[in-house]
Amino acid sequence: MKFDFLVLAAVASASTLTPNVLPLFVRNPYLSTWLGSARKAPWEDWPMFWTGSHLGFSVMASIPDSGKIYPLIGRPHDSLRRGHKLYSITFPEYLGPTFDASTTNLTYLLHGSSLDEPVKITLSFLSPITPSSTLRQSIPAAYLTIIAEGCSNVTIYTDANGEWVSGNRANEIKWDLHEPKVPEESSEKTTPIKTWKWSRQTEQHLTEFYDHAEWGTMHFTGPADAQHEAGTSGLLRQHFAEKGYLRNQIDRDFRRIMQEEPVFAFAKTFKLAGESKKKGCSKAEDSAVFTFALIQDPVVQFASARGLTLMKPFWASHFASPDELVRYHYNDFKTASWLARNYSDSLARDAFESGSESYQDIAALSARQVLGATQFSGTPDDPIIFLKEISSNGNFQTVDVIFPAFPFFLYTNPKWLGYLLEPLLEHQLSGQYPNDYSMHDLGAHFPNATGHSDGNDEYMPVEECGNMLIMGLALANAFRYDTEPAFVQAAAPHAVANAISSAKDWSRSVDRYGFDLRGHRDRKTNLQTTGSKAAEKWLTRSYSLWKQWTGYLVRESLIPHNQLCTDDFAGWLANQTNLALKGIIGIKAMSEIADIVGHEDEAKHYRKIAATYIDKWQEYGISRDQTHAKLAYTWYGSWTTIYNLYADSLLCFHVPSSSSSSSSSSSFSTKVHQDERRKRGFGRWFGTAGDQKPIGGGGDGDHDSGDTEKPFIPDKVYQMQSDWYSAVLQKYGLPLDSRHLYTKSDWEFFAAAVTGKKTRMEMLEAISLWVNETVTDRPLTDLYETEGNGGYPGIYFMARPVVGGHFAFLALERACGGKAVEALRFMDEEPAGKNAVDVDEALKADMLEAKQKGWVGDL
Q1: Residue of 659, 614, 622, 619 lying closest to 640 (CA atoms)
Q2: What span is annotated as the signal peptide, if there is one (predicted)?
Q3: Which pTM was predicted?
Q4: Which domains does the chain possess?
Q5: Mean pLDDT, contiguous 10-residue spans, the chain (859 residues)
Q6: DSSP 131
């Protein structure tokens, strides 16, 4: 399989930040492989699962005419003998990693060949993010491309072990090699392949062992001309080091994972040497692709409206068998890599314009981690995305984990947010949840969404009601503002799409090349990419729930009783200022929802309540000197990050409008724009269309007329908090509140998105410094100390999808047709001679006034 080398070499641009952990193969909660200690050489430790446990995966290189063996990743050299007469273990020159949203590249120079020129090796790990192709995104598989440059032949060895299919090393596994014939009807693009398959001898469906799946079959695929061998790890590696090849043999003595550790290996020779060396080195390039796929069926069980259901993977609606899927995925490399590259380029451009080069890296580092918590399921007529609350407690479809992640989905593909919310709506509409507030999650532990028929899920009633209403309206607005998936164009003009030749290519949701059809409306949810009518239909279907949850907020959100908010590690607390704000914005959101579906009287009712409550909230929650928001109404001398203020701007409540409604029943897109976007659908693939509309390019229509009403939350609240955050900022970021120095990175980005430019850049610089210096040693944590070494605060969060909150800047840029950010520009102008907030004096003043009025005890 020959590839465009220039394309492969450019898949990940230079990175400015140096995180301690980088993604390698990250597709779902169980196919999740990371490079730990990424600031060190990759051969100093084994790759790891997101929990930190080792995964058996290694790569070595051999230059035949030198006798040198070069470890590249993992520790396969532990199996080799020092001082062996046939080979010598030699460490390469490591040029370091680069990464973008979908790709991590590790690059090396191999010195010591008979020629003076080193051989350059790049290991390119691609977990493609493809917003325009839900089908491709659903495939539980990733790519490893090995790129060789130089003028000496080089052979690459790679192997994997049984730890990919079980978290318990005592379990027995079985394996085989599949060498499919190329179908006669296949095009010349089809490459002959061979696939290692292994699984547990006895699978345990829908169970985990230390978060590893205990069911599913691993597929490790390479080109058919690669050599293969299965056997004891040490023996295979020693043979390769001595001979430089594998023997195409299979040890069929099935056994436990670490009992004479069986590994499944490929070796591929790259012939870079020219026929004649008389004129010196003549560099050549070559590459080969390998894929890793974890095939599971079912993927979860879900208490749907029809009862507890074993849910099949989404790809099963399009492919007749796992083998067909694996073959398609392998031959789809060029298409998938172009789509991923275009998303990465779009993200990099938007993130740079919205923040800085460092923000480019933070967004890129976060993207695969978000999707690494998801499983795509359902059918073309009922697509569903399931989500695991990774590391914090493993809950299934946790509402207050989806909420911090949802800016990523609004930016990347709003329709995917709908697929995330759908199972929560379906379950509660079916009457399986007894409480009148929104449920916290669909199940205590992923992958089992068995519900909470007793109503005893984690108690966050105001939190979850507010979250659902805010996300519901945000999605409806994305429909109405015609927010497209985030990609520029599908591929280069000369590229040819990879068509689906499956017996199941009848799907109405994708075209024959696997791209989402813009006009498709699924049978059940009426989710569409764009249109006011789509928003109305989607909201109407669950209107009873929106109204029910709003009723709870009307009763309980202004003065919240003792309860948890999403930051449950901080404990129970009454009268939480930030939590109350979320509930009040939720009520305001309901007024917009009612307006969209045509219930004008109810819209006015909720709008009036929200307006009354927000005035009261300012009275109760803001310090007497008007310098900051308090942690709780009666906690004088305290302060908090009111990250829920972000929702006010995201939902267009801060955008000047001719009415209190942020919307109109008419479409915001003119027919001209709609026609252009249709042309840019499949036409993008051939490069015939223009680029995506600029991220802050403004709306397609203007629904303002007449007098402009004041924003829901006054400018002064925004300015007050922006000034306060700048004053209390620590070395590595903004603490969550006055109780501790720890912070949550998702909430930092929510908060920073609605501050002035100076404060926003200060916060971004602090977070970037933390990424570079933190000692945390797992996939990007969202909970860390803002001082000291930036480590864990005794609570170990890792690999959580909440880092989708890092996309808060980008989602806000796209909101309200580009007007949301414009409405906050007033904070960018710093008045001359403006004094910084004196934090200590402000807190003392708050306490003193409270004492004088008898509200608190002694200072």
Answers
A1: 622
A2: 1-16
A3: 0.92
A4: 5-311 (2.70.98), 388-485+529-843 (1.50.10)
A5: 48 79 99 98 98 98 93 98 94 98 98 83 98 96 98 97 99 98 67 97 98 99 98 98 97 98 98 68 92 99 98 97 98 96 96 94 98 97 96 97 99 97 99 98 98 98 99 96 60 56 59 72 57 92 98 98 97 98 99 98 98 98 96 96 99 77 40 39 33 39 50 98 98 98 99 98 98 98 98 98 99 94 93 84 87 59
A6: T
